[in-house]
Amino acid sequence: MARPIVLSNGQMFVGLDENALVHDFYYPYVGLENLTNARSLQHKIGVWVDGIFSWVDDGTWDVDIDYEADALISSIRFVSNNLNLTIHFQDYIDNNSNALIRHVTIVNPSDKEREIRVFMHQVFRLSNAGRGDTAIYVPDENYILDYKGRTCLLISGKFESGEGFDQFATGIYAIEGKAGTYLDAMDGELSGNSVEHGGVDSVIRFKKIIQPNTTASFDYWILADNNQRDLERKNRKFMNSDMTEVMRFNRQYWQNWINKTNKQIPANNKLSVLHSLLIIKAHCDYRGSILASGDSSIFNYGRDYYCYCWPRDAAYALWPLMRLGHIDEAKKFIDFARDTIHPDGYLLHKYQPDRAIGSTWHPLIHSQRKELPIQEDETAITLFLINELYESTQDTKIIEEFYSSLIEPAANFIASFIDRETGLPHASYDLWEEKFLTSTYTVCTVIAGLRSASRLAKAINRYDDSLKWSKTADSIKSNLHLLYHPDGYFRKGLLVNIDGSIVYDDVVDISSNLQLMTL
Prior knowledge:
The chain is of the alpha+beta class. The chain has 10 helices and 26 strands.
């Protein structure tokens, strides 16, 4: 399922579930290396007050989850009528360091003084097999270190008044018959077990006496780096900082990014548009990948996940950003595409955020004939995106930078990847990744891609290329009638058999008609 809250800074990506618990935790790429154990347990949050303990996901709390209006900062409210307590979370990922920060405000609405204890649990899976991790308490600076090799996480926090967490426990999670150390919190006290290895989890406690009708706040954070020394340096900085200023800085960062929007957004749609922009931005790795989804829950019933960069998905996500004035993300993706394009000029099915080839179910053989395991529309739409970027900026340096390494090979490939029997693009997999054929959608995308490449070539005086690609686009369009059904609609597609015969797929596909509208 989709995560109600996603947070990111271009390197760290965190997804919170419907109970505002950490479900996905990616680092050091947006969408690569999920460090949580989310397939079996989220990071629990427990509350002890007046001798009663409760998990916030036990069904007794009312949970309201949203974002702030103009920043990638959550606004989450837990209300317990049983405990007569309200807790407000504001979560964000620091843009100056790789840290998930949860600013927690406890509201005591009663007319009596109360001691309130909040337990923050974390369960990571740093090693692939869920073994060999270490969780250790470091007393000199009062933090938990969770590490495996070069992946290191530091867990700590402090109240506004300066004191940190007062109790801790590390332990074994989901091995040797152990459920997890989070259960240690349920009596309101933690054991103080200071180290464990294997499959591990940990809990820390924040305790405060809160006066009647007043509040108390603390900040809890998880810092990520590749070594303990740098983590300690970052942790000291937080310990010596006014954390309200840290949140204010991050809020200003997002507001500054939103203010790059160069179009007037109607007031009745503004909040939805701003949230959509921020969520798209959250899926952008600063190295160019655009993540399809960071949700790992599909792993519970499927073979794979959506933590890949599909060039098509990336283009559709970036197009509205560009039209609203946000171009940096598109520039980085085009650089990503240049680095991943095959020497023959095509982009593959999908890629990992680190530019490695993603998994695929598209074979290299179809009907006893060698075929490319691609979706040709992904190569074509990348050309379309580059032209849209150029149209937005009128900067020919973009064309010159990518012409020989991306634009020219991609345009030459799709201009030559054509069946002589039909004059249409050769078969590849459709955008739904299910059928191998020459789909109407892909044909239209190829026409748009070639026209885009022609405009780009003309802008830098490459007239021969411009004319060649323009003529090929016109030729393909002249054969679109082969995809038109006598009943008055465009077929899903067709397939040219080895013997030259043509088989039609007469399914009505919404993608066909939507794409035809762009021609």
